[in-house]
Amino acid sequence: MNTRPCTLTQATRFSLFQSTMCGKLSVSVLIMCLALATLLEGKSVPMELRCQCIGKKESRFIHPKHIENVELFPRGPHCKNAEIIATLKTGKRICVEPTAPWVKVVIKAMMKK
Questions:
Q1: Which of 1, 56, 66, 96 is the most buried if burial means most Cβ atoms within 10 Å?
Q2: Per-residue pLDDT of the chain (113 residues; tens, 9 = 90+)
């Protein structure tokens, strides 16, 4: 058998190598967790468990130049109706009637962009 006894320096080297690898692994895991948190920060999950549009929905025409953003909320466990919320350039949020013909046209146009 050709084995040499482990000297103190070899044991010390192994211990240093092992602690360095453990430190690198810890730093890598920390960086991955921070990256994941950063990516998920911008993604919001609707937490409202109720309908957003309570009451009257706007069916009158709103010119697209006044609309900043349109949010579509499909029907689900939170609400039995599909909801469409238009955010105007003034910052006001308006629930619009999903079946109104102009709403369908505006949504198609915005999806093309």
A1: 96
A2: 556 655 556 556 656 556 666 666 666 666 776 666 666 665 555 556 688 888 889 989 998 899 998 898 898 888 888 899 999 999 999 999 988 999 888 888 877 87
Domain, as residue range, for 96? 64-112
* SS3 letters across the chain: CCCCCCCHHHHHHHHHHHHHHHHHHHHHHHHHHHHHHHHHHCCCCCCCCCCCCCCCCECCCCCHHHEEEEEEECCECCECCCEEEEEECCCCEEEECCCCHHHHHHHHHHHHC
